[in-house]
UniProtKB/TrEMBL annotation:
Residues 5-148 form the N6 adenine-specific DNA methyltransferase N-terminal domain. Keywords: Methyltransferase, Restriction system, S-adenosyl-L-methionine, Transferase. This is site-specific DNA-methyltransferase (adenine-specific). Signal peptide: none annotated. Residues 161-476 form the DNA methylase adenine-specific domain. Its EC number is 2.1.1.72.
Length: 516
């Protein structure tokens, strides 16, 4: 049911954008969905309070108060803040926005509503994108979009409302990323990759950090993992950073609608030069940094304490990201990072020496090769690095080759199914020797545990395909000579047929006056 709702909403919303660029339109749609949600949850809390204030058996009972007194009491912001509901001033509530939908000034009305919401909720300051008055939509389209989003029913139950909105919001993020292509991938990591990182890291409690958080997908999947395993959202604290201001706002809204408390820094900023969390040492780090960026270096980074294993090359940030994350990891923490395949084997400009130093220091735990066509924004082959300062299995690295495990979901994109993700996470848990996990065994063509000395013999290259070997093929008991005989006979037949066809084609063309 929810899948049908999401698809219908997307199809209609996409039609309404007319010729507007998806990158621009995205903020209009997601901003309105956010306002609809906080207005609905505010209205639900207000209705609940109105009932409880009149109930003599309830702790909120307000005595023999008049309706005027009850209405005044309902304006107390603390009632809303204590349950993590944003206060929405009357002119900013959805009914007021919808009532103005057909007016030519609807864009300004929405911008003013967003300003009022920000003024009442410091947590949202600078986060809501006030661009509606200047939106380049054809006349009436913005009003139609308001009417469409009015059909999203979040219901009166707060947890159900949050889940429905969260699913709609995330679905739209993914669809916009697909519509935008290369640019879309800058703010959205495909869900199956995020799920794989989360499943392997298992962030139950503590501090979770993403230094290039995009729209916040790593945090959302972490939340789902925690809840699926019987934990509570309050068991983790969220820290993130994002350089792109509009994407930073998307992340803040994505977390706010789920009631997740977060710290994305005072402002958007470059992680290397404007580190928003310099003293943070996290329990879990999950990240999908931009691949192979060449314009990251600044003179102020010379001799930075983060470069513990060597100075990263100024023309490629891959090893700057790896070392930044190790620097921000607790001694008992774990990190999972998506990087381009070149990071596993490159020896240019000190990268080989840094990788060797990391391997020898025994901070590389698991290396996982990914299939192609997983991303919206690039066909560059990618891999997952899992790092840990205190490994459960010291002196070894687990290599997993998952290049053949994806399922195509469209002509141009694939993903890992939940079963594949469970297999990968189970393999790592077994290798670590975790409680209730089955005993680990190497599987040719899929996984192998390798001692550091062997990795050194291979020049500290960390490409899984080099270590896991070839997949075992079932023996059908047919002798090689017999197989060769059959194949040779089949090839001879095909070659003879090819010669016959060639002669026939020449004969037909000769009849038409062509010479050979």
């Amino acid at each position: 049911m929810i899948d049908d709702i999401k698809k219908t909403l997307w199809a209609t919303a996409d039609k309404l954008r007319a010729n507007m660029d998806a990158a621009e339109y995205k903020h209009l749609v997601l901003g309105l969905i956010f306002v609809k949600y906080i207005s609905d949850t505010f209205a639900a809390r207000r209705a609940e309070l109105s009932t409880r204030l009149r109930d003599p058996k309830d702790e909120y009972f307000y005595g023999d108060a008049s309706q005027e007194d009850i209405d005044a009491e309902l304006e107390d912001r603390d009632y809303y803040r204590e349950v993590n509901v944003f206060w929405v001033p009357e002119p900013a509530r959805w009914e007021a926005i919808r009532a103005a939908a057909k007016q030519p000034t609807i864009g300004k009305h929405i911008d003013d509503a967003l300003s009022l919401i920000e003024a009442e909720n410091p947590k949202l300051k600078g986060i809501l994108d006030k661009r509606y008055a200047r939106a380049q939509l054809p006349d009436g389209k913005l009003g139609e979009l308001v009417d469409l989003i009015s059909t999203i029913g979040f219901g009166t139950d707060a947890s159900t409302a949050r889940d429905v909105l969260g699913q709609v919001y995330e679905y739209f993020l993914g669809m916009f990323a697909s519509a935008e292509g290369k640019r879309g991938g800058q703010f959205y990591t495909p869900a199956s990759i995020v799920k794989t990182l989360v499943a392997v890291l298992a962030p139950h409690q503590g501090q979770v950090y993403d230094p290039c958080c995009g729209s916040g997908g790593m945090f959302v999947q972490s939340e789902r993992f925690i809840e699926a395993h019987g934990g509570h959202l309050g068991d983790v604290s969220i820290y993130g950073q994002e350089a792109n201001p509009t994407t930073w706002r998307l992340a803040a809204m994505n977390l706010a609608i789920r009631g997740i408390d977060f710290n994305l820094g005072r402002e958007p900023g470059d992680t290397f030069t404007k580190n928003q969390h310099p003293d943070l040492r996290a329990d879990f780090i999950l990240a999908n940094p931009p691949f192979n960026i060449s314009d990251w270096w600044h003179g102020s980074l010379e001799g930075d304490p983060r470069w513990h294993y060597g100075d990263p090359p100024q023309g490629n940030a891959n090893y700057a990201w790896l070392q930044h994350m190790l620097h921000h990891l607790k001694p008992t923490g774990r990190a999972g990072i998506v990087l381009a395949n070149g990071s596993m084997s490159s020896s240019q400009n000190n990268e080989g020496q840094i990788r060797a130093a990391m391997v020898d220091a025994d901070v590389v735990e698991v290396m996982l090769a990914l299939p192609g066509q997983l991303f919206f924004n690039t066909q560059i082959p990618a891999c997952l690095w899992f790092l840990a300062k205190q490994k459960q299995r010291k002196g070894e690295v687990l290599f997993i080759d998952a290049r053949k495990l994806a399922t195509m979901i469209s002509r141009v994109q694939c993903e890992f199914t939940d079963e594949v993700i469970e297999r990968i996470a189970g393999t790592v848990a077994s290798w670590r020797g975790e409680a209730e996990a089955v005993a680990y065994e190497d599987v040719p063509g899929y996984c192998r545990s390798v001692r550091l000395a062997e990795i050194a013999q291979h020049g500290h290259v960390l490409t899984p395909g080099r270590y896991v070997g070839a997949e075992e093929v079932e023996d059908d008991d047919e002798a090689f000579a017999d197989k060769m005989q059959k194949l040779s006979e089949k090839l001879g037949e095909q070659m003879a047929k090819g010669a016959e066809l060639d002669a026939l084609i020449r004969q037909k063309l000769g009849g038409l006056g062509y010479e050979f």
